[in-house]
Give the backbone structure.
Amino acid sequence: MATPSESNLIGTSEEFKYVLDQVRMVAPTDCSVLIQGETGTGKELIAQAIHQQSSRASGPFVKLNCAAIPAGLLESELFGHERGAFTGALTQRSGRLQVADRGTLFLDEIGELPLELQPKLLRALQEREFERLGSSQTIRVDVRIVAATNQNLEQMVSDRRFRADLYYRLNVFPMLLPPLRDRQEDIPLLVRHFVQGYASRLNKPIDVIPDSIVNCLRSYAWPGNIRELQNVIERAVVLTEGRELQCSPPGLTKLTPAEAPLPAQPNHTLAEMERSYIADTLRKTNWVVGGRAGAAARLGLPRTTLISRMRKLGISREDAWPRATGFSDDLEEVTSAANY
């Protein structure tokens, strides 16, 4: 039976079950979590599940989207300010760190945090203390950090666009959320969930979802992931007249054979699932591991971590794609690494 924190986490695929297993594993601890995944994969829902299954569940869950707030205001949003600290600061204000005391602070789009603000955040995480803007008084807090990003932070560290020490402080427990195109068997469940929700909200008597619509939606690549599916279903419910869902989304691009996920195998272990998932991603990138278009970037993993996982799982190129010429130097390095 799902816990209340999992009531909005819909899916029975092995990929999604693995994510839920990770949530149950890390939630009782107090370590920092870095959730990685494409836009729209549900990173905030996972962060909420971690909070609600932790010992901090009775405390606040505070969100801060680092990409939604102008860089000049982020420091005040995080740490607060004293009256008169800057033009327009008419009253004292507590920052999100202080508001999240004895709870969880969710830092979404952490890759957008300005470089000049990163040392102060690092110090607050390490020392559990900070000062408001315009104040010399130290404030101590007890906050758990869950961060999320759709960017390759390791590459940003290499490009000197993100501090290495802050990256390692956040990346204590990394989690990778699979894209919806790799969770095709979950699409019917998600469609039913969204149809029921929007039909109830809009007072529509929809209780029939044609198989033809579900099959069409399953064949789509979903670059916007679950958020895009949710928007498509909302539009379909609005346009539907009667009890049967009417859905003909324009411009649906079908998955190509190279993009289609490997078929799920019954009763396979998490290690086998992970091996299949990594091999499938390597196949999609023609065994290119590093760089912005490589498998490590698509998986949201550091390049060295991916190579280490390949060694441990015994992945060789025969698992993903026939040997070809003209690949980058990463191919040779990973091919060698996989044979160790």
About this structure: DSSP finds 14 helices and nine strands in the chain. The chain has three domains: 4-176, 180-239, 270-338.
